[in-house]
Amino acid sequence: MSKVDNLIKELCSEGVSLKPIGSICKVSRGRVMSKDYLRDNAGEYPVYSSQTASNGVFGKINTYDYDGEYITWTTDGANAGSIFYRTGKFSITNVCGLLKVNVSNVDSGFLTYILGTVAKKYVSSGMGNPKLMSNVMSSIKVPIPPLEVQKEIVNILDKFTQLEAELSAELSARRKQYDFYRNQLLTFEQQDSQRERETLNG
Predict the structure, then answer these.
(1) pLDDT, tens digit, for every residue of 89-128?
(2) Mean pLDDT for the chain?
(3) 3-state SS track over the chain
(4) Are the C-beta atoms of 66 and 77 separated by less than 8 Å?
(5) pTM of whole model > 0.85?
(6) How many DSSP H helices and E strands does the chain contain?
(7) Residue 196 has what pLDDT?
(8) In this predicted model, what pLDDT tens digit does every residue of 52-100 receive, in sequence order?
(9) 88: alpha, beta or left, given left = phi > 0 and alpha = psi -120 to 50?
(10) Domain ranges of the chain
């Protein structure tokens, strides 16, 4: 039996309560920022948008709207319902929602993992534009085990996340190595064919 199993058996013998996001977090949205605004206010602080590539970074500006530990989610578009854990100084655009845990018995990392498994189920695809708006996010109910259980789950999942990142980096390196040698071999073969044609044309 794992440590998590032991903790659940010890601390959650009567089950785990469900809490709506709105009761444990302050829920808000970002603001409109155009590419022109980013260009005119370029700086060091990231601005996150609805995209998921590059960890959602839309650009960087010289000011920030938030500083601390937060969770963001994509409210509109193909990536609606995507969940991100954010720390430090940053801003978000109007197609991002923001969660700030405001109770002492909920770990932001744990909530990030939980929402990552359930948020997509609440995305509405009406009129061909997927959405997960603030009122819906606020109503999502999630299980809240004791804080000690939450932290142990985060500890385990963080290790797997780190391992996944390491494997992805290794795979990417191997892919580049493969591409390099493939190109070398194909170039060699083409050079060989060129020499054969030169010999034949002698």
Answers:
(1) 999 999 999 999 999 999 999 999 999 999 999 999 877 7
(2) 85
(3) CCHHHHHHHHHCCCCCEEEEHHHHEEEEECECCCHHHHHHCEEEEEEECCCCHHHHEEEEECCCCEEEEEEEEECECCCCCCEEEEEEEEEEECCEEEEEECCCCCCHHHHHHHHHHHHHHHCECHHHCCECCHHHHHHCEEEECCHHHHHHHHHHHHHHHHHHHHHHHHHHHHHHHHHHHHHHHHHHHHHHHHHHHHHHHC
(4) no
(5) no
(6) 6, 8
(7) 54
(8) 888 899 999 999 999 999 999 999 998 999 999 999 999 999 999 999 9
(9) left
(10) 1-15+146-202, 17-144
DSSP letter, residue 131: B
Class of 17-144 per CATH?
Answer: alpha beta
The answer to whether residues 24 and 69 touch, using CB atoms and an 8 Å cutoff, is no
Q: Give burial (CB, 10 Å; 0-12/13-18/19+) of 143.
A: middle
